[in-house]
Design goal:
Blueprint: H1 2-18, E1 22-24, E2 53-63, E3 69-73, E4 83-94, E5 103-108, E6 111-117, E7 128-134, H2 139-142, E8 146-151, E9 164-174, E10 187-190, E11 200-204, E12 209-213, E13 219-230, H3 243-249, E14 259-264, E15 267-273, E16 302-305, H4 310-313, E17 319-326, E18 329-342, E19 350-356, E20 366-369, E21 372-373, E22 379-399, E23 402-422, E24 426-445, E25 448-469, E26 475-493, E27 496-515, E28 521-537, E29 542-550, E30 553-559, E31 569-571
Length: about 600
């Protein structure tokens, strides 16, 4: 009888979502042919029916220095009941002129609400862009008033003239007959020590973003949302080589393997792949005008399932939860948020870890090289970096439902090849990289498999940088970048698939810089790019959008092509951007 009720709870949630229907969804940037403004094919966050309550965090704030911009938050007085969805919206712009891309983040009571970077302007274009993030899983945080801040460190002087402006608000959608209340986590904890919130710098592999927490004694499930953003010497980590080859290839050292390592009380607890984000000043700024790289303006967190540790975390003792970046070489900016579900029918949950094969598996990649130097000094060959790991973490928790055994099985991989051609007239570096993760989270009540979730992530990336030197000392630097984000989610009940979703986001861009003998960029040519974004799920949602650009302007845009009736329709509860989805958590 207990197991039947447990499974019905899950099935009812899925069925209620199915009955909600689909809504038209547009692209975030609404590309217009001929426009030189920011243009992306990314979808907006789909909304449930009904009018939201809006809480403004800040309006038209100027970012022209290195001071944070504080704000106060109060929950919406007219939406005090259950929420079906909570969405963050932000609108940013930067004045025409010269300015670097800047890291942007929003915080509340120490918890990260948004993480991304800004678009670089040009002398003639003052770009503006819109971002959205589904914050439904952070509802417990948003129930209480608190202090927050926006951080966009920006240098403005006679050389760097671009001034950034921003507005942000939260939209709360009340639960209704047509939009069920969200099954959000019961508690939200930041791993940072800043009570208002800020990123933490991880300069080396041993540096930690960590917090020691004494959690409630009835933790039933736990998840960690992780951001790891490359900065400074690590900004172009995907082009770095092992130290032994750095001098002859004229590249950054430290190798190019990066991975976030999660631990609890010093014991390995999970891994999070690092996405190779390229910012709008990266490699060649013209590559990203007007279309930035994948997620450049709005990062997605990677969610790590820590549920096997639920019994251990419920013992009433303090526990350290930490994030490190393997390979960090000055530096990564990190943020992490712990999401906890509590057993509402028990004051105490007990249990322990019974298996953890991640322990002892050091994140040490295998390095290979065919790099060779000819008698005339020419260098050619390839450097390879590879790491494949498989691990299982299992633990049980004695809950009011009975003994729940949670098993996380994950295969992770990193495969990289960098080919160099270096001589008196050529410096060419070709990078092919693929990061992937295949994971399964299973929930068992006694010996009865109740639910399982499967996730697949694939981050393909390639860069061809070809610098040619002419006899007069001038040169050209041609760059081609291919970048992708692929994700597959599947939820199974009693061995049957009840929900599946696929996300495929890709950006391809090319440009060539002209450089005079003094090293000054004098122009560029051949700029063109494209983005294609596709989402579908097994309940009928479909979103497709694609765009092409040339010489810094949108030249083509398609939307809905390939969806039924040529229209993008996505159910309000879906996550077409690929963001973490609590409705797909086993055991809810």
């Amino acid at each position: 009888m207990v197991s039947g009720a447990f499974v019905r709870h899950l099935a009812v949630g899925v069925l209620a979502a199915t009955l909600a229907g689909g809504f038209a969804v547009r692209a975030v940037a609404d590309p217009v042919v001929g426009s030189t403004n920011v243009a992306t094919a990314d979808p907006t966050v789909p909304r449930p029916p009904g009018q939201p309550c809006v809480v403004t965090l800040f309006t038209n704030v100027t970012f022209d220095d290195f001071s944070t911009r504080p704000y106060s938050y109060t929950p919406p007085a007219s939406c005090t009941g259950a929420w079906a969805k909570v969405v963050l919206e932000g609108d940013f712009s930067v004045t025409a002129g010269r300015q670097y891309d800047r890291t942007a983040s929003l915080w509340l009571a120490g918890v990260n609400l948004y993480f991304g970077t800004t678009q670089e302007p040009s002398a003639a274009v003052s770009p503006a862009w819109h971002i959205e993030r589904d914050l439904t899983d952070y509802s417990a945080l948003l129930r209480n008033a608190g202090q927050g801040q926006a951080i966009i460190d920006n240098l403005v002087n006679s050389t760097y003239t671009g001034v950034i402006h921003g507005t942000a608000r939260l939209l709360f959608y009340p639960a209704s007959a047509g939009a069920r209340a969200a099954t959000a986590p019961d508690a939200v904890y930041s791993l940072g020590s800043d009570p208002v919130g800020s990123p933490v710098s991880l300069n080396t592999s041993s540096d930690k973003l960590a917090r020691t927490l004494t959690l409630p004694t009835n933790v039933e499930r736990a998840y960690l949302d992780v951001f790891t953003q490359s900065q400074s010497n690590d900004e172009f980590w995907y082009t770095c080589v092992p130290d032994a080859y750095a001098t002859e290839t004229n590249e950054c050292g430290g190798g190019n393997f990066r991975e976030a390592e999660i631990s609890i009380d010093g014991t390995p607890a999970g891994v999070a792949p690092v996405y190779p984000w390229v910012y709008t000043g990266g490699i060649d700024p013209y590559l990203w005008r007007p279309t930035p790289g994948v997620q450049t303006l709005n990062f997605l967190p990677y969610r790590v399932d820590l549920t096997p540790f639920a019994g251990q975390l419920s013992d009433g003792n303090p526990h350290e939860v930490a994030v490190q970046v393997a390979g960090a070489n000055s530096y990564f900016a990190a943020a992490a948020t712990l999401l906890v579900y509590r057993d509402s029918h028990a004051t105490r949950v007990t249990g322990k870890i019974t298996r953890n094969t991640l322990t002892g598996q050091a994140p040490t990649p295998a390095i290979g090289s065919t790099l060779a130097t000819a008698s005339n000094g020419d260098i050619s060959g390839a450097i390879t970096t590879k790491l494949d790991r498989r691990f299982v973490i299992e633990g049980y928790a004695n809950t009011s439902h009975g003994r729940i055994t949670s098993t996380v099985t994950q295969n992770t991989g990193f495969d990289d090849k960098q080919t160099f051609t270096i001589n008196s007239s050529t410096y060419r570096q070709q990078t092919w990289q693929r990061t992937w993760s295949e994971s399964s989270s299973q929930s068992r009540l006694g010996n009865f498999l109740t639910a399982e979730r499967h996730e697949h992530f694939d981050y393909p990336f390639s860069l061809d940088y070809n610098h040619q030197l002419a006899s007069d000392g001038s040169s050209s630097a041609a760059s081609t970048v291919h970048q992708g984000y692929r994700q597959r989610d599947e939820l199974r009940l009693l061995g049957l698939t009840v929900y599946g979703a696929d996300v495929d986001n890709s950006v391809h861009s090319t440009d060539a810089l002209a450089i005079d003998a003094g090293g000054n960029v004098t122009g560029h040519s051949g700029q063109q790019s494209s983005q294609a974004f596709a989402f579908r799920d097994t309940l009928g949602s479909c979103y497709r959008a694609s765009l092409v650009t040339q010489t810094g302007a949108v030249t083509g845009y398609d939307t809905g092509k390939g969806c039924p009736d040529g229209v993008n329709r996505v159910s309000w509860f879906a996550h077409p951007d690929g963001s973490p989805d609590s409705s797909l958590l086993p055991g809810r």
